[in-house]
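Morning run. Coffee first, then this:
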Amino acid sequence: MKRIILILTFIFVFLNPVFAGANAKKDIVVQSVDGFTIKATLEYPKVKEKKDFSTIVLLHSLGYSSQWWESLPKELLNDGYAVLRIDLRGHGKSVYNSKLVRTSWASMTNSAYAKYPDDVIKVIDYVKKENTKKTFFNNWAIVGADIGASTSILVAEKIPYKPKTLVLLSPIVKTKGLFVPVKLANLNNIDIFSIVGTDDFSSKSDSEYLKRFAQAGYVSYTSEAKSKGMIMLKNDPSLVNIISSWLKQYL
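And here it is:
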């Protein structure tokens, strides 16, 4: 009897694609223009014969890292998306400059934060060009939180192949020198979904201000979470499905 159970367990766990390493995972390491090491993680479902993946880029909050997205990456992978989580300069694993000196976001100047869009584009370009057998950026979107939201707008404005939509958690008009309204006004065909916490009056005000510059759709949503940025996902788990549903309209 025990032998039968062991055989059935083997079949269920190791042959069922849902449980048997159903997602491929790649660690990405890119050197920025000034030599700073930017690290990221690319995951995508292992689906036989599938070569073209819609991709979601996740850009985290200030002071956090790409590990703080709660269940959102898993949900997106279950929906069939590829997920690219980037540690922004000075955060997570992206903390070494060209001289291999550890550098934290807390000690960085605005000139360093100004490099965020180029850092992110460098990672995206690397993934796009290095994966010759699979395609990840024919259809894509960005989900960003506070400074990650600002970076999302700046990336979308600068990168030649545009994302289909942006999801902004606690968007900010200006942070660490990153001023985004004018760049937002250049996004002619990109719809935006803005999410703010119920007590986050600063983000509510900034979101309404940014809405004036939107050239396409701009939808605002107030979460019940009494928090801001990526922490809203922890305090309001329903946001995972809300974000997923929004993305499904575009990808």
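The mean pLDDT is 92. Good start to the day.
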